[in-house]
Structures are given as C-alpha cells and as structure tokens.
Design a protein that fits this description.
Elements: E1 2-11, E2 14-24, E3 29-33, H1 40-48, E4 55-60, E5 64-67, H2 83-88, H3 94-109, H4 112-131, H5 134-147, H6 164-177, E6 182-186, H7 194-206, E7 210-214, H8 218-224, E8 227-232, E9 235-240, H9 243-278, H10 283-301, E10 328-337, E11 340-350, E12 355-359, H11 366-374, E13 381-386, E14 392-395, H12 408-415, H13 420-429, H14 445-459, E15 463-467, H15 475-487, E16 491-495, H16 499-505, E17 509-512, E18 517-520, H17 526-530
Parallel strand pairs: 3-7, 3-8, 5-6, 6-7, 12-16, 12-17, 14-15, 15-16
Antiparallel strand pairs: 1-2, 1-4, 8-9, 10-11, 10-13, 17-18
C-alpha cells in the first residue's frame, strides 16, 4: 500500500505538483495521465522511493515493484549476469544459483580432498536452493520471460550485451516475477510485441495488489485500470472508471466549468456596470456601489479555474542540402556479442530521399544495425560508407546522447553553432523553453525524446536514423513528429514497432533482419511491424 499526503514534487527548481493526496490499496488499478513533462515520471520515482518529495508525506507498506521508463539499466553489480539470472534475482534466488554454478565449475577442475569439499558445498547450496523453491521458481521465471518475448537462447545471454528493448523486457519480467504488493509501471508496453502486450494486459487484470501505471498505450489503460489520476495545472484530479470514461468525463467537466465561469463572468460584468453607473451619483447609490465592489472582489476570488490551455509541440525539420545519389551504403556487415551471433552478411543500400524501415522480431538486430550505420557501434565484419555530401543524424532509443549533469540548453549548443535566440525558439517549439537551465538527466522520457529530436532539427542532417522515435511521446507530440517527417525531403532509415505511425509514414522499402533481405514495403507487412 502507498499513501501520499500533501505531496509536492519539483524538477530542478520548477514546481510540478503541489498538495497532492491519494492512496494505492490492494485491488486499485490506477492510470496516471498527463502531457509529456507534466511530472508523471518524477511522481512515480518519488512514490517508488528513488526521489524525495519537496513537501508532504509518503508511506509505503509491503513490497513495491518499480519499472523505470528508461530502457537502459543502471550499472549491474555483475556484468556476467544472464537474462534468466537477472529475473531470478527478484526473489533472491538468482545469486544462489550463480554460486552453485561457480562451485560446479570449480568441481570440474578440482580433485582429491578439494573436490570432495566442493561436492559437499554444492550439495548444501542445492539443498538451500530446493528449500527456497528454486527449481519451481526457475520454471516460473522462464514462463514470465517467455511471455514477454525473452526465451530460448536469449535467456542465457548476458544482459550487458542485450539491446535496450531486450533489457527492458528482462526488467519487466523481473518486476512482475517479484512477489510484490504494489506495482508502479512507467510505460510498460514500450518494446513489447502484440503477444507480449496481450499477456501483460491479462496479468495486470488478474493482479491482486495495487497498480499505478503510466502508458501511452490506450488499449492497455482501458483494459487494465479502474480509475485515473490526471495531472491538471500542477494538481491531480481523480476520475473513477477506465481511460475511455476519463476522456469523456474530462470533456464534460471542462464544459461544465466553462458554463459556470461564463455565468460568473456575466454576473461580475453586471455588477461592475452598476458600479460605474451609480458610484458618482447620490450618497445612497454610491454606498450601494461600494458594497457591490466588495462583492465583485469576492466573486472574482471564487471564480472557477479553467486551467491553462494545453500547449502543442511544433516539429519542423529544415529541408537539408541534397546528398549524393547513395547517401548511405554498407556491405557484408556482421556482428556478435560473445557467443551470440546477431547477424551476418547484411547489406544496406539506400537511395537519396528514400524512406526505409528495418523490420524483424525482438532480438533480430534492428537496433544493432542502426547503431553500426550511425557509427556508434563497430561491425565485426564489413564496412559502412557515407556518400557524397551526406550528413547523418542519429536518434537513439535509449537517449544515449542526453547526458546527465548537462543542461538542456548546453545540449543544443553542443550540436549547432547558431544564435542562442534561435536555439531558444526551437526549444520553445518542443515545449522545452522553460527547461533550458534544467539538468537534462532529470527530464522525463518524453522530454528527453523531444530534446533529442530538437538536436536533430538544429543539426540539419540529410540522413536521419531513427530508433523507436515515438516511444514515450504523447499522442499530440507523435502526430507532430509524423507531420514533420512527411515533409522532410532527406533520407530516412527507421526502426519502429508503432504500426499506426509506420502506416501513416508509408515507407518505400524494408530490410528484414536478421537475414538482411530487402524489398518494397506494403500494408501486408504491418503485422510484422507489430511483432517487432
């Protein structure tokens, strides 16, 4: 259970929420909604205990499981840990199994009394593992991981060598596998395919603990929640019902406030007109006018707050200088991490102005290929060629280019030598104007996405490599990005699992990973996009 009383949170010195009181009990399934930058992620981190509130009180009881919005993991205590071992650590038996494996390996190399000693030690560890339900839990952990798309050889791959999407699925499996009393999930459907999303919805629907979730996946919210907390002008407004009910009720409440405000303003206007007419007349009428002035001030203090009108992001990629006919080319690319061969013999040949999408199942190497083409990762075999007059801009799904400890404005200065006034204008288009001096590491996932896109805008590159650019974006920001990319006349290479976004963008060709087969893109391939 979580109880919050009069909680206030800030990002940097910017207030996000004040005097918020609510609770999460067993059986509560609450969706936390609001635009990018409203403070959803900061509030979840505060409730999970990662941050302290600026004011107020938070009480937790039971085990709280928290899934961060970020795909990147914190530094792992053991860089050798595999995906399955990482999931098992949620119940504190993963480390025990690692100790068993180390002793087993030592047994193979030892002999005599040392081997006998190790056998006895292994037997004791095995008894402890069995007593803790380790073998049953291991089978259950495999089931959780497989349901989220981590199975087969992936279970035994080192987490440190996995892509951002794979790591995030491992972390989600770990959080769900833990025996929690409260789940706090920040964008849990990012990087999940359709089957994994369906399984997650079923799991959350049957979860008996308290749930607080942030997601731009509206079907998930509709299927899995029974109430909503909505950020509204630095406050939280509660709604009973699912997301569909919230959207309808929000419209109804605003219409009601508008009507009440209109009646209040009309009443104030009538009184003010009377004051103007009678204030300079007889003493009796002037006295009445003065009483009306007091009444007007009281009515103004009691006026219904309408809330600030929602600001809209404006994305516009400048039309770049044209590149040569083939801006990007790669031949016979191969990449492996330890014994995990991601792909071999992949060719890329993209024409100027073409829109190409990289497709494939989870773990097929889509992100790895894009990182190699961007020059962030080095191929084990093959070569990448940047064409005549081609300049490459890369958007990383893990926001690698966003550095903690550096302000938003300094991020913009680092990529473009243009006047500060112009940089501020562009940040304003991305709704980041009030965050120019904020540490970029404290931005929400959606705000980091906007900052990374703003950097691409000022760079003016004629080749854009985009890795899941719609993750963490609210619907309006996603629509703005789509409109900008439709107008962009440069070359585009995209990784995305967002079927609506891909369908609207209408790619020309596709690369199917891990084999690297190329072909023309058509609507029949959208099902594979959803499985990515």
């Amino acid at each position: 259970m979580i109880i919050a009383r009069d909680v206030a949170i800030e990002a940097g010195a910017r207030p996000l929420l004040a005097e918020a009181s609510f609770s999460v009990h067993d059986g509560d399934k609450i969706g936390l909604v609001g635009p990018n930058g409203a403070g959803k992620t900061t509030l979840l981190r505060t409730l999970a205990g990662e941050l302290e509130p600026e004011d107020g009180l938070i009480r937790r009881s039971g085990i709280v499981g928290y899934l961060s919005q970020e795909a990147a993991l914190r530094q792992l205590a053991d860089e050798e840990v595999t995906a399955l071992e990482r999931v098992l650590t949620a119940r504190d038996i993963g480390n025990l199994e690692r100790r068993m494996e180390r002793v087993r390996q030592q047994m193979e190399e030892a002999d005599g009394e040392e081997r006998d000693r190790l056998i006895r030690r292994f037997s004791r560890l095995d008894d402890e593992f069995t007593a803790r339900g380790g073998y049953v839990a291991k089978a259950e952990a495999k089931r959780f991981a497989a349901s989220l798309g981590v199975k087969g050889d992936d279970l035994f791959q080192k987490v440190a060598t996995m892509s951002g999407g794979q790591r995030r699925r491992v972390e989600l499996a770990r959080v769900l596998f833990a025996e929690t009393d409260v789940l706090i999930l920040d964008e849990p459907t990012n990087h999940l395919d359709l089957d994994a999303k369906a399984w997650l919805m079923e799991f959350l629907a049957g979860y008996s603990g308290g749930l607080l979730v942030v997601s731009h996946d509206l079907p998930l919210l509709d299927a899995s929640i029974t109430s909503v907390l909505a950020f509204d002008g630095g406050t939280l407004e509660p709604y009973r019902g699912n997301y569909s009910y919230y959207t309808a009720e929000r419209t109804r409440r605003r219409a009601q406030r508008l009507r009440e405000r209109k009646h209040q303003d009309e009443k104030i206007a009538r009184l003010e007109e009377g004051i103007r007419r009678f204030k300079g007349t007889t003493e009796k009428m002037a006295k009445r006018a003065r009483s009306w002035e007091t009444r007007v001030e009281r009515l103004k203090d009691q006026r219904v707050e309408l809330g600030a009108k929602a600001r809209r992001i404006a994305v516009n990629f400048p039309q770049p200088e044209p590149s040569g006919r083939t801006p990007l080319k790669a031949g016979s690319l191969a990449k492996a991490f330890d014994h995990n061969v991601v792909f071999v013999d992949v060719d890329v040949d993209i024409d100027r102005g073409e829109r190409m999408i990289i497709m494939g199942l989870n773990g097929a190497g889509k992100t790895t290929l894009l990182r190699i083409l961007a020059g962030v990762e080095t191929p084990d075999l093959g070569v990448v060629e940047i064409g005549h007059k081609a300049t490459v801009g890369y958007y990383a799904q893990e926001h690698e280019q966003i550095v903690a400890g550096t302000t938003v404005f300094d991020h913009m200065r680092a990529v473009a030598e243009i006047p500060d006034r112009d940089l501020r204008t562009i940040l304003g288009h991305f709704l980041l104007a009030d965050k120019v001096d904020q540490d970029a590491g404290t931005l929400s996932g959606g705000e980091k996405t906007k900052l990374a896109l703003a950097q691409l805008v000022v760079q003016g590159d004629n080749v854009l490599l985009l890795d899941e650019p719609t993750n963490n974006l609210d619907p309006q920001a996603k629509e703005a990005l789509l409109g900008a990319l439709r107008q962009y006349r440069g070359t585009l290479l995209l990784v995305s699992h967002d079927t609506d976004f891909v369908e609207a963008l209408q790619p020309d060709r596709m690369i199917l990973m891990p084999d690297g087969e190329t072909g023309f893109f058509d609507q029949s391939m959208l099902d594979l996009v959803a499985l990515a």
